[in-house]
Amino acid sequence: GRAMYRNQYDSDVTTFAPTGKLHQVEYAMNAVNQGSACCGLRSKNAVVLVANKEGGQADDLSEHTEKIFAIDKHIGIVVAGLVADARYLSKWMINECLNHSWAFETPINSGRLVTALADKSQVYTQKSEKRPYGVGLLVAGIDKTGPHLYQTDPSGDFFEFEANAMGNRSQSARTYLEKNFEAFPDCSVDELIKHGMLAIKSTAQDPLSTRNVSIGVVTKDNAFRLLSEEELRPHIEAVKDEEVEAAEDEKKEDEKEE
């Protein structure tokens, strides 16, 4: 009977363990870490979101799961975790933006939207009849104070970042971003995309392709949008070349040794 009661304190989201943890909330956060990786980064003029779409049910016959959603002209998100929860939340966020524009005749401040989302997430850590959302979001937004990147998670926490990654094997992407983030503010959009691609490349099991990567961009001058397959290609080529060169260098080294 031991296996049945491995943890007395995780049958209900509202029960504190003696250590002060809410185990169900932590499990929801684990769902985010199991999702395929994504990252976001910002410069002075833009925010870029990059998603790795591998994993899940995808095979050669199916499309990969969509992970980047436009929320408003000036806001977009990339998600990791349970994508069905993410779709529900993106719908809610779109409605929040529409209601705000209608009521105040001005676009919603991205930080305010993220705070509202965090407040919504917090409710399900305190009411036992529902479960927390098993999804983390990176929210890219532009407002009067410039570009912003936020992360939200199932506990109702949210943070603002210069750059961040989440999802499966995202530690390597974070390491890349930590090493390079000081250069990001002055990057062009293309350079920012390249950094994002290199960060995501470190998490990918398969080579990056137009099938398993998506990129969303918002700038001070242009609304948030997803890059088309044609636009993706040069960015994939840009990070592929280095990979091929490295492989060729290794080959040459091996040949020398022989």
Count of DSSP strands: 10
Helices, by number, come to 6
State the major sheet: 5 strands, antiparallel
Encode the helix/strand succession as letters. Answer: HEEEEHHEEEEHHEEH
Question: Assembly type of the shown chains?
Answer: single chain
Strand order of the largest sheet: 8-1-2-9-10
Residue stretches low in confidence (pLDDT < 50, at least 5 long) are: none
What does this structure look like?
With 258 residues, the chain is an alpha+beta fold. Helices cover 39% and strands 22% of the residues. The chain is globular and about 65 Å long. The termini are far apart.
Summarize the topology.
Layout: H1 23-34, E1 38-42, E2 46-52, E3 68-72, E4 75-81, H2 83-104, H3 110-123, E5 135-143, E6 146-152, E7 158-161, E8 163-166, H4 170-180, H5 189-201, E9 213-219, E10 225-226, H6 229-257
Antiparallel strand pairs: 1-2, 1-8, 2-9, 3-4, 4-5, 5-6, 6-7, 9-10
Helix pairs in contact: 4-5, 5-6
Entry summary:
The protein has 258 residues and is of the alpha+beta class.
Summary tags:
258 residues, alpha+beta, 39% helix, 5-stranded antiparallel sheet, 10 strands, 6 helices
